[in-house]
Structures are given as C-alpha cells and as structure tokens.
Amino acid sequence: MKPGLRFLAISLLTMLFALAGTWALVLVLVYNLQDTLIFPVPGGIDRAALDQSAAELGNTPVDLTAADGTRLYAWHREAAKPGSCAVLYLHGNAESVAGTAELGRFVTGRGCDFLAVAYRGYPGSEGHPSEEGLASDARAAWDWLVSRGIAPNRIGLHGCSLGGGVAVRLASEVSPGFLVLESTFTSLPDVAAAVYPFLPVRTLIRPQFPSAARLAKLSLPVLITHSVDDRLIPVSHARALAKAAPHATYQETAKWGHGVLVLADKSARDLYSAGLAWLGSAERSPSPWP
Prior knowledge:
Elements: H1 3-38, H2 47-57, E1 60-65, E2 71-77, E3 86-90, H3 101-108, E4 113-118, H4 131-147, E5 155-160, H5 162-171, E6 178-182, H6 188-195, H7 201-204, H8 211-215, E7 222-227, H9 235-244, E8 248-253, H10 261-264, H11 266-279
Parallel strand pairs: 3-4, 3-5, 5-6, 6-7, 7-8
Antiparallel strand pairs: 1-2, 2-4
Helix pairs in contact: 4-5
C-alpha cells in the first residue's frame, strides 16, 4: 500500500475507534445517570422546613413506613367532616409535598380528606427513588388511609406527570373509587425515545411505568386531562391513554402547559369537582363522569 493510502486508512480507523469509544461512553453515562434524569429530587428542603410549612398551611405531617422499612413523609389535610372519602395525590418527578397545599385545600373544601406522600429520596423521606420503590411508597400511603377506616372505593387516586405512572400501578393492585391522570405518559420508554431518538433508550432505561398496558386492564372510572401546549409530555400520550382505558373520560385543554390542570383549567376543575362529590356520595352512579 502506498504511504498516502496507508496514512488515510490509519486515520479512518482511528476516527472510527474514537467515534465508537465516544458512543460507548455516551451509553454508559446515560445508563448510569438515568436515575438522576428521571428522579430530579428537589434540593434545599429539609424536614423542619416542611413541618413549619405544614403548620402554617393547615396540614398535618404524617410518618409512614414502606414495606421494606423505608421511612416516608406525607402531608395530610382533613375535610370539615373527615373520614367519608379521601384523595391520595402522587406528585411529579421534580416536585415535593410542599407544592400540594392549594390542591389539598381544593379537595378538602369539597368534602374529602387529602394525603400527599413524598416518595423515597424526596424531601422528608429516606431512601433512593426507583420504580419499585415508588410503588411501595404509594401502597404505604394507601394502607394508611384504609387503616383510618376509609373504604377503598371512597378513595380516589390522583397522579400528575410521573405520579400518573405510580397511580396507575397502584390502581392495578387495589380497588380505588376513581383514577385521575394529569399530564402523564403511556410509558417512560415512550417519553425517552422521543427525547433521545438517537439512543437505544428502550434497551437502556430501567424504570418502565407501562401505564397504557396497565390501564387497558382496569375497569374503574378514569379521568385523563392534558394540555396540547404541554412541552414536556406531548398530548399524544394522553390521547393514547384515553383509548387504552375502557372507562375513560378525556378532557383536553389548549391553554395550559405541564402540571396540575384541575386547578388551572375550568373544564378540568368542574370534572374533578364532580368526581369528589361522587366519591363521598351515599348513593352514586357507576361513574362520576359521562
């Protein structure tokens, strides 16, 4: 081989090896950092600050213990006539219970108790977040409400964003009165594949949260609400979830972004209010929603 061609061949091989090495490094980084990306735990919030905020806002701190012994933190707020019905709220991946005060007031103002649990690793709770861990945390919160004498079919599950995946998982294991899903996804790999189309994320990602597949097997009333202006989780996820759920009521808004829509959007708020009234009603139809 001529010297010029030999040099070119060596240069190309060196470049290919460098690209392959860089690609492998990217895959390793994505795999090892995925928990940080999926569970970006808010910082700078300690237990004392949460307790003080709870007292100022009329909430009661609650200590829970998951099945594996992990100690958890929650905020509880009672309705004027407590114990007839309750909502268990499961928050998004970058939230804490400190952001649930307004929703708690809304729920209790309509006759139902309210409980928001901090996932493991999140402010107030011990441990490190994972898909199975969050499922265990939600179950501990559910069991606490049931232990207070609230009938399972008088407890509504409400999940926002990542919390939607947690709520669907819990709904598949217990028998709640209803399920509310806001700004959530069909599955976590579906979200990741759209954000990182150039990476084999379906193979790399550990947490799955296969909500669409689980919803297809549920027979309870489900309210799904999403904004077409959501830039984090496209509205196509909500539309697919609505098709998957046998008894879904779907409400779509064009005004708001990602987050708790039952407080921001009037149509969603009216549907949610109807669900809360139905949850505590002595005589009720099979579903609070048409």
